[in-house]
Design a protein that fits this description.
The chain has 532 residues and is mostly helical. Helix 8 packs antiparallel against helix 20, helix 10 packs across helix 16 and helix 10 packs across helix 18.
Amino acid sequence: MNLTMIIGFLFFIGIVAFASWYKSDKSKVKTLNGLFFANRSLGFLMVGGGLLFTNINTASIIGENELTYTNNMTVMAWGVTSVLAMLLVSEFIMPLYIKMGIATTPDFLTVRYGGGVGKLVSVIFLVSYVFNLLPSVLYAGAVAFNGLFHFSDVWKMEYWTVILILVWIMGTIGCLFSMLGGLKAITTLDILLGIGFFTGGILLPFFGLKYIGHGNISAGLHQVLTVHKAHLNSIGSSTDAIPFGTLFTGMLLVNLYYWGTEQYIIQQVLASKDLKTSQKGLAVASLGKLISPLLLNIPGIIAVHVFSKMHNTAEVFPRLDSLVSPPFIAGFIAAVIFVAALTTFNAGLNSSSTLFMLNIYKPWLQKHSKQAPEKRLLRTAKQFEIVVCLAAMFIAPLILFVKNGFYTYVQIVNGFFNVPIFTIMFMGFVTTKVPAIAAKIGLIFFIVCYALSQLVFDTHIHFLHILAILFVVTCVIMLVIGKLYPMPVPYTLKLNNVVDIKPWKNRHYYTVILLILMVMLFVCFSPLILSK
């Protein structure tokens, strides 16, 4: 274990720890609104940074580079096409949320369909966080750290045991940070991560090319552009991890769900000062997603020219970093990975507590005519975070035994939760008479059919196409039920905004620029230019 690398790691972690402590000490969390929404006071840079780096976590850094190494640049579509989804959310969904003054996604479902649907979706969200989001982030962080610092070799322990230890260390630190600082401390962490992320995104490819070229960056770049060119292709065929056609079916739906209804994501936007600020924040996050392949995918391409074969491909990114970067820089990038794990883990914990407190616990208190002081509610919220954290830490090490690659596992499991929820949300947006029973039947039908397609029957159809097919079928079923058994009183939107709802005047100009850049990125990594 290199001492200089450890110093580089501790240097960046020290800066992050001091800045987070200073920020949280200045604004101590005393209410649920402060814990969950930073008192709705965030500016557009903090909103944009919070969105981007709650999304870009250790799982995506490790997983996307693994798939780029084993497949090609088609995996960049997950991040790059999310630009379109974010812009659609900014224009159509976020104004609706802010006008309604909601605090959680299930709040909308409660208003639209009734309390039963809202509670059901709250439970589904919590199950998703406990069994998928939080464990996957901890597992990816543990894999990264073992790859960077070679703990399994240094400690002379079995790989699984090392992963278990690292998961519990990261989970404990993340839980403490989330409880002490709340959402404002998490977004401060995101800003610092942003600086480190883009710095690492420049430094790691630089040193990687230098390593390939034996000290000559131009020679390294020439090799990457002329050898193994198929890896530079982002236009996927039917045999690739991400076939190009899926960009217009299930992937679009997944991204719309993620940026428009995923609680731990929209909570970042709902904490903004006003609608204009939230729309600017979404534009900032969109720009960041266009730059993010520097650290999410390019290292995987470089690794193709460095490692001819790897036993555990999930360690592609950390092994590359520790091999090609100077020890201090390798330690710095290790710290970036650590902070990336904390940001998403903390945001997931915070949102889990938000869902439980606002959609389950407080309604239970009201139903039983009970009241609790703010201090007690705050204590209960933090206690729930501890329970969720412990569950995630027990589950995370088991991900080691899944097949088909870590990142593919994460996306397939997400399918049990994401598009089913988006489907009933979408029908709630575009219809006024579809009743609650249609939402419940649609939700159950979608989840059961998707489970059968992934666990029982081999359909030979990509899971993203299956999500799109089930989306259409479920919408039809809900429309039929709505036609046969419509709501006696059609749903109408009622304004209940707590911040200014005036939109960002110049948003359309930036929308066009961002969409052009998105298309150009695909053209660049295609047989037309780099992979021809």
